[in-house]
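Regression report. Comparing outputs from two consecutive submissions.

Submission 1:
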Amino acid sequence: HEHPERPEPMTRHLTPFPLRLARTEGEVAAAQALRHRVFVEELGARGGALTAEGREADRFDAHCEHLLLFD
């Protein structure tokens, strides 16, 4: 029985933009602010715990790495 084709690892899709994990709380806050602008302001989603501060955050943030792409 055949297995479905596995997706290619992300490293195979190199980008000309710097890509790394957030290193500071300030970088995580900046990522949450971007999420707020995109998902709450532009797409109309309901915000998470820090919506009043202009950040989209939820209970999963404490357990996640935040991947940053710089242009």
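Submission 2:
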Amino acid sequence: GKAFRLEVLSTSFGKLARLVFDLEGEKVNKFNRLVMTEFEDLIGKLEAAGKKGEIDALVLVSGKSGNFIAG
């Protein structure tokens, strides 16, 4: 399943990209090959968006209550 959800918010500081790490079907977030591939693809897209001025900052947060990542 998908592990990340991207939300772009307009704030008084500019355009904020909020990347939520929430591995579907799992109680905790964990890195595996599929997650890392998805993350690498997203980072490339986010870097390009930043260079074009489409986002000003990135925040990475957990979609799981009480923890960010296990393992």
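Expected: both submissions complete independently.
Actual: both completed, but the second showed a warning that disappeared on reload.
Relevant detail on submission 2: Residues 4 and 39 are 8 Å apart (CA to CA).
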